[in-house]
UniProtKB/TrEMBL annotation:
Residues in Gfo/Idh/MocA-like oxidoreductase bacterial type C-terminal domain copies: 169-421
Gfo/Idh/MocA-like oxidoreductase N-terminal domain location: 45-156
Protein name: Gfo/Idh/MocA family oxidoreductase
GO MF, one annotated term: nucleotide binding
Organism in which the protein naturally occurs: Sphingobacterium humi
TM regions (residue ranges): none
Gene3D superfamilies: Dihydrodipicolinate Reductase, domain 2, NAD(P)-binding Rossmann-like Domain
PROSITE patterns: TAT
Keywords per UniProt: Oxidoreductase
PANTHER family with a match to the protein in the record: BCDNA.GH03377 (PTHR43818:SF11)
InterPro entries named among the record's database cross-references: Gfo/Idh/MocA-like_OxRdtase_N, Gfo/Idh/MocA_oxidrdct_glycsds, Gfo/Idh/MocA_OxRdtase_bact_C, NAD(P)-bd_dom_sf, TAT_signal
């Protein structure tokens, strides 16, 4: 895919923030085509308008002006939800190069995320990407590099590090971050993510072996849906709602929920620019095509901090966070006496930019972006690599590669089916 010129809209915003602050209501035509009036909504194009894509049409401060899908049934449902009259595209590149689009929202299966995000970055568009950020570590590096080069604003769509109660903890992550930062639990810490601490690994996202070969529906461009993924004969179960069960497109329950669960842990442990140095796996041998289940995955950092993914719920009674000086259990219950009073004496964590529209207007990094999102997605992909190979792995956090392991390193940059490439 060839690089296109960056949008003049982004450069204009960077150069005129001070002047724009004085505007109140300015029509788009006063500034000229492609320039954003501060009073305008940001326009959005959504790639992939299945159930996930259709659920994000009405984000405050944005207006969906273009949609793209390789299934005409999805496009029809999207038009109905939007009230009709929205520009349709079959090829995502046409949507990305649509001059009326400010933000490209990527809601496809993960095997497309990297290519689409890089193409959007090269076209000068800001990017909203569903989780997981990318299907491989290498694709994540490409996205990080492209956004850095072209100055886009990137949002990864898992919000728990800054918004909403965090699953079984029943408090926002900010409060957990504050507790960890106080040092009351001590160091290093062990975090256990389990059904007993409030996290469901959704093991119904498993693939099926020996899928029947079926006729491709006439409304569905299966060749384009596969894109860079290896060619496999069409079977309904490997597409749309159940694609997560196949290695070529995602990584089962870990691929689906991993970044939701792990990104906040990375944040409150202060690991936004660091990866674990070892990954241990306890799982059945995996099928080469269909993703299966696993019993336990353990990540260990250089300083001794650990994250334990308990797949089968064997860690009964374990604390969510355990340190040498105290424990934190489900529901923000702790064995530290008078915790709430003690916690109130400490400062709040540093503020984050959590309004994506504001981030786009002011060119400030969003709270969960291409940099910290890369590292939390790498956590997911490290676990998936160990699971696929069914053995423990060592990882060099500085080099971002596996140590003396050619087979594992081949999973970092996996081949793409022609004609697709970065």
């Amino acid at each position: 895919m060839k690089e296109t010129n960056n949008s003049s809209r982004r450069d204009f915003i960077k150069k005129s923030l001070i002047g724009a602050a004085a505007f109140t209501i300015v029509p788009r035509f006063v500034l000229g085509k492609g320039y954003l009036a501060p009073s305008d909504h940001l326009t959005k194009g959504v790639i992939g308008v299945g159930s996930m894509g259709r659920g994000h049409f009405n984000y405050a401060g944005t207006k969906t002006v273009a949609i793209c899908d390789v299934d005409t049934r999805h496009l029809a449902l999207a038009q109905k939800a939007l009230g009709g009259g929205v520009k349709e595209h079959h090829d995502f590149r046409d949507l990305i190069n649509n001059s009326e689009v400010d933000i490209v929202h990527i809601a496809t299966p993960p095997h497309w995320h990297g290519l689409m995000a890089v193409e959007a970055a090269r076209s000068g568009k800001d990017i909203w990407c569903e989780k997981p950020m990318t299907r491989t570590i290498g694709e994540g590096k490409k996205v990080k590099e492209a956004v850095a080069q072209h100055g886009n604003i990137f949002r990864l769509n898992t919000w728990f590090r800054f918004d909403a109660n965090f699953y079984g903890m029943n408090v926002p992550v900010k409060k957990i971050k504050k507790l960890v930062d106080t040092g009351m639990l001590g160091w290093p810490l062990k975090v256990t993510i389990s059904k007993h601490t409030g996290f469901d690994w959704k093991f119904y996202w498993v693939g099926k072996e020996n899928l029947p070969v079926q006729q491709v529906p006439k409304e569905f461009d299966y060749e384009m849906w596969l894109g860079p993924a290896p060619y496999k004969p069409y079977s309904e179960h490997r597409t749309h709602l159940t694609f997560r069960g196949y290695w070529d497109y995602d990584g089962g329950g870990l691929g689906d929920m991993g970044q939701h669960y792990l990104d906040p842990v990375q944040y409150f442990l202060g690991k936004d620019h660091e990866s674990p140095v070892s990954i241990e796996v306890d799982a059945p041998q995996q099928h080469s095509d269909a993703v299966g289940t696993w019993r336990k995955i353990t990540y260990t950092y250089a300083d001794g901090c650990q994250i334990i993914l308990d797949g089968e719920g064997t860690e009964v009674g374990k604390a969510y966070i355990e340190g040498p000086n105290g424990k934190l259990f489900r529901g923000f219950v702790s064995d530290i006496p008078d915790l709430e009073r003690k916690l109130a004496q400490f400062p709040e964590p540093a503020p984050q930019v959590t309004d994506f529209v504001e981030a786009c207007r002011t060119r400030q990094k969003f709270a969960l972006n291409e940099q910290n999102g890369y590292y939390s997605c790498t956590l997911v992909n490290l676990g998936l690599a160990a699971l696929r190979l069914n053995r423990n792995l060592k990882f060099d956090s500085d080099k971002q590669e596996f140590v003396n392991d050619d087979a594992a390193n081949r999973l970092i940059n996996q081949p793409m089916r022609g004609p697709w490439s970065f």
